[in-house]
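fyi for ur records
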Amino acid sequence: MKKIKYILLLLTFSGVAVLTSCKSSPPPLNKDDIMPYQKRADIIITNEDYQKTNKDINQIAKKFEGFIKNSSFNTDVKSQSNAEYEIHVPYTFFNNFKENFDNTFKPDIVEETVSDEESLTKLYYSNLAKIDQKTAALQEMKESYVVAKDVNDRIVMKYEIDKLSTEVNELQQKRLSLLESMNYSTIKVTWKQKNDGKDSLPAGVPGLPPPPRQIILKNYGQIENFKVNEPVAISMEDLDPEKTNIISNIDMDADNIEMKVTEYDKKETVVLDKKCQIVIVGLGTLPEIIRGDAIKREQIVITPIIDDECNIIGNEIRAGTIESGCKEGRKNYYRLLNCVRHGKPVVKKSKVVRIQQAAPAQRQRRPVWEQRDEENSIFMFPLD
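which gave:
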């Protein structure tokens, strides 16, 4: 009988152990499980037909469930034209993509290298280390907060606890984003116009600006970067303009504009973390706005963007008011007010006519002037 009880106790203990092991959290991602998936290919091709090359690259990426994250096309008047593509393909289709690409561009491939991509893996484990560090610091601060008696100390600790909690949450979100990115491998393709001994393109005409950089928008999620005053020609390919929204993040300090292609009804998120930062969006769904610590007290201003016919074609989102020093917002604001007042965005300033009033000679000691504007004068707006 005692033996039966002993066996029952042993089975009960084993059952509890199994249940406990089921509830435990899964082990962290093993580096060896990630490394084989992260492949990278760098390919240089050359031919004379950019349009066909561009079409073929897009078709191959789409065929293997990939997407083009970044692309650019440059026309250099002193040499050949060139283009670059950064293509992301699910790691399970990397070899298939590569084989299909090689078959399609076999006579055009000049250089090709395939390697393991370690950057995302290193970033992932660096992020994990930061999570462990911040979590340990947060736990230690919470324990100190419980036993602290001084009110001032508790206030400072509460601030640090909130700050550490926010940092841990942000690092966890970054971890999930990196895990998602690690499902893809990267293929960088550089296309160069083939030069068969022909004369190079004619030099630019003195006094005229160089031809604008060509940017072709082809996929949702595509991101392009260019300088604030850089001449750019933007066009769409295989996208419906009525179902497409473009979000442009303007960073005046870095002299950079980041433009992202999104679906019209898809809710996006933008982060405003600098005063006077401007984000331009189309007529689609307004993005969710996240304030950075640097602009917690700044007012978020949304101003409609007006075309030359006073039609609303988008919205400007700005971190800070004109009165607080954000001068870059004045132009768009004044165009809107001119449309409200005059029915057109730009009104030329009227000339000031000075008229000397006639007066009896015996009473006139000095000229009497009055200042009069023409009938259609500009609506003057206060400057900061």
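The first strand starts at residue 39 and ends at 47. thats all i got for now
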